[in-house]
């Protein structure tokens, strides 16, 4: 990373409103990283917990599709500051329900699944709202740095959150971790409301684009990269089940081992985002995305090294290192190609499609693990992640 790269990050963070949004989001993401481990461990403590991991993953991902379809029009119509704050308050209340019920009695067996579903239903609000707000908070020449900072916050929070969550569960219980996440949502709500600049759609000076976010699917580069991301996220949905299964049945350390794996993945994402922000691809972006996706897919093969925790964690590091540039470069591509009045809906549609596919992976891998077919499961998820990258490279070269 060069001095000019660091200066681009500094200029973006020097803009107060962007800095407030980024900091609030980063703190909330730390809480979310802890929450995944906490919810997973609550489910594993139930009878037939391993079999129920797939259900938890479905609850934590499937409602994203419905929520994404609703969030886009809301983000394009109302001030994004208020929408982001309302989302944080709703999800914060959902997280707080588990420590509250635990304090007054016992946590209902179904509550972790309900909380995961509420989280998923509103998840697309910040996932679409943050990138849709970036063009209003930073100038065009700073967008790559701003996109990289968003990915850096995902990587840093994902590295700290799971590891810290695994440690805190052992000392204080999963309920205390969820209480922290509830507080982090309050912080994000306050940060969103502290932004001074209104985040309402600006008047459009060109021809008025079509009013549906689905019109972005007419753009071939956007469609090609979105399909590739959807396939990669199917593989990630499989990993969301395999990781806890390994921590429970193969690795010593229990939740600490799971936290280590997720922290390794996030550490790779952090490093990959830092490098990609200074090496933004403006020419041949689709090919560049395909190359890093193919390399990231090979990292999944490290799962075959189980029960050697360090070797598996090294593979997760590779996956994160090369998947982060995919996100940054594709997001800059979307910002350049989606008209301003459709940014909320466009980002909501594309990110909804990408976030809706992990349940397919969870549903696919759970019966394989129950049947003891671990190696076939790993080879299948690797092939799913790699195949679209190969197809993109073949199409690009032709």
UniProtKB/TrEMBL annotation:
<feature type="transmembrane region" description="Helical">
    <location>
        <begin position="258"/>
        <end position="281"/>
    </location>
</feature>
<feature type="transmembrane region" description="Helical">
    <location>
        <begin position="176"/>
        <end position="195"/>
    </location>
</feature>
<keyword id="KW-0472">Membrane</keyword>
<keyword id="KW-1003">Cell membrane</keyword>
<protein>
    <submittedName>
        <fullName>MFS transporter</fullName>
    </submittedName>
</protein>
<dbReference type="Pfam" id="PF07690">
    <property type="entry name" value="MFS_1"/>
</dbReference>
<dbReference type="InterPro" id="IPR011701">
    <property type="entry name" value="MFS"/>
</dbReference>
<keyword id="KW-1133">Transmembrane helix</keyword>
<feature type="transmembrane region" description="Helical">
    <location>
        <begin position="146"/>
        <end position="170"/>
    </location>
</feature>
<feature type="transmembrane region" description="Helical">
    <location>
        <begin position="352"/>
        <end position="371"/>
    </location>
</feature>
<feature type="transmembrane region" description="Helical">
    <location>
        <begin position="222"/>
        <end position="246"/>
    </location>
</feature>
<dbReference type="InterPro" id="IPR036259">
    <property type="entry name" value="MFS_trans_sf"/>
</dbReference>
<feature type="transmembrane region" description="Helical">
    <location>
        <begin position="21"/>
        <end position="43"/>
    </location>
</feature>
<feature type="transmembrane region" description="Helical">
    <location>
        <begin position="377"/>
        <end position="396"/>
    </location>
</feature>
<feature type="transmembrane region" description="Helical">
    <location>
        <begin position="288"/>
        <end position="306"/>
    </location>
</feature>
<feature type="transmembrane region" description="Helical">
    <location>
        <begin position="55"/>
        <end position="76"/>
    </location>
</feature>
<feature type="transmembrane region" description="Helical">
    <location>
        <begin position="312"/>
        <end position="331"/>
    </location>
</feature>
<keyword id="KW-0812">Transmembrane</keyword>
């Amino acid at each position: 990373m060069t001095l000019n790269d660091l200066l681009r990050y500094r200029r973006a963070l020097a803009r107060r409103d962007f800095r407030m949004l980024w900091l609030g989001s980063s703190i909330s993401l730390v809480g979310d990283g802890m929450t995944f481990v906490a919810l997973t461990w609550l489910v594993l403590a139930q009878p037939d917990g391993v079999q129920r991991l797939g259900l938890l993953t479905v609850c934590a991902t499937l409602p994203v599709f419905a929520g994404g379809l609703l969030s886009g029009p809301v983000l394009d119509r109302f001030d994004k500051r208020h929408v982001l704050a309302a989302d944080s308050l709703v999800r914060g209340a959902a997280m707080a329900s588990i420590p509250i019920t635990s304090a007054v009695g016992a946590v209902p067996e179904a509550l972790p699944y309900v909380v995961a579903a509420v989280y998923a239903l509103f998840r697309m609000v910040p996932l679409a709202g943050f990138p849709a707000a970036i063009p209003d908070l930073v100038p065009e020449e700073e967008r790559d740095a701003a996109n990289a900072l968003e990915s850096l916050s995902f990587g840093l929070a994902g590295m700290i959150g799971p590891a810290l969550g695994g440690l805190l569960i052992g000392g204080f219980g999963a309920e205390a971790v969820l209480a922290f996440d509830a507080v982090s949502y309050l912080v994000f709500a306050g940060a969103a409301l502290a932004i001074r600049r209104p985040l309402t759609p600006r008047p459009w000076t060109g021809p008025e684009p079509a009013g549906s976010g689905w019109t972005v699917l007419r753009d071939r580069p956007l469609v090609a990269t979105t399909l590739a991301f959807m396939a990669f996220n199917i593989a990630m949905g499989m990993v969301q089940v395999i990781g806890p299964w390994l921590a429970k049945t193969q690795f010593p350390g229990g939740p600490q081992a799971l936290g280590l794996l997720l922290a390794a993945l996030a550490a790779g994402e952090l490093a990959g985002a830092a490098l990609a922000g200074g090496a933004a691809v403006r020419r041949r972006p689709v090919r560049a995305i395909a190359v890093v996706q193919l390399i990231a897919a090979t990292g999944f093969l490290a799962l075959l090294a189980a029960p050697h925790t360090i070797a598996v964690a090294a593979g997760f590091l590779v996956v994160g290192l090369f998947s982060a540039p995919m996100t940054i470069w594709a997001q800059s591509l979307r910002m350049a190609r989606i008209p301003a009045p459709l940014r909320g809906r466009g980002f909501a549609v594309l990110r909804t499609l990408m976030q809706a596919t992990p349940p397919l992976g969870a549903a696919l891998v759970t019966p394989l693990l129950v049947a003891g077919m671990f190696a076939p499961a790993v080879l299948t998820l690797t092939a799913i992640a790699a195949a679209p990258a190969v197809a993109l490279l073949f199409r690009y070269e032709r």
